[in-house]
Amino acid sequence: MADKAARAAAAHGSSASLPLTELPVRGRVDCTGFIESVTYQPANEQAHFSAIVVDRIAHRGDTGPLTRLRVIWLGRRKVPGIEPGTVLRLEGMVTPKDGMPTMFNPRYEILSRQEHQ
User: Fold this and answer.
1) What is the pTM of this model?
2) What's the confidence (pLDDT) of residue 4?
3) Is residue 67 within 8 Å of 55, Cβ to Cβ?
4) CA 52 → CA 11, 35, 85, distances in Å?
5) 35 and 52 in contact (C-beta within 8 Å)?
6) Residue 32: exposed, middle, or buried by beta-carbon count in 10 A (0-12, 13-18, 19+)?
7) Is residue 1 pLDDT above 80, yes or no?
8) pLDDT higher at 96 or 61
9) How far apart are the first and last CA of the chain?
10) What DSSP assignment string belongs to 54-87?
């Protein structure tokens, strides 16, 4: 299934889409990646929804490092369709936050989703 998602990402990605490994420290980018995890905030905290996007899906026995991008949607507790395994195309400003490249309120396009088993 990961291969199917990777093919979908490649088919929908534009020539301007950067691999996550080539993200600048700061600046506007268009990139594609897989949602690795999402974080929901408790009701008593300020509303925001975050996800970690990786350059590839890690498989058992895979020892190579993953490139990660934190994506944060401010003012929302959930973003429909954003869940682990989803392939996204993102467009927005990248800035470092807590040592990780971070994108706030990006434009996004869902390219594919993995089927739940």
Assistant:
1) 0.77
2) 45
3) yes
4) 22, 6, 11
5) yes
6) buried
7) no
8) 96
9) 11
10) ESS---TT--SPPPEEEEEEET-S--TT--TT-E
Tell me what percent of the chain is helix, strand and coil, each rounded to the nearest 5: 10, 45, 45
| Residue among 64, 55, 66, 69 nearest 98 (CA) | 69
Q: Is 28 exposed, middle or buried (0-12, 13-18, 19+ CB in 10 A)?
A: exposed
Q: What is the amino acid identity at position 57?
A: I
- Please provide the average confidence, as pLDDT, over all residues in the chain: 83
What is the pLDDT confidence band of residue 13, given thresholds at 50, 70 and 90?
very low
CB 94, CB 102: distance < 8 Å: yes
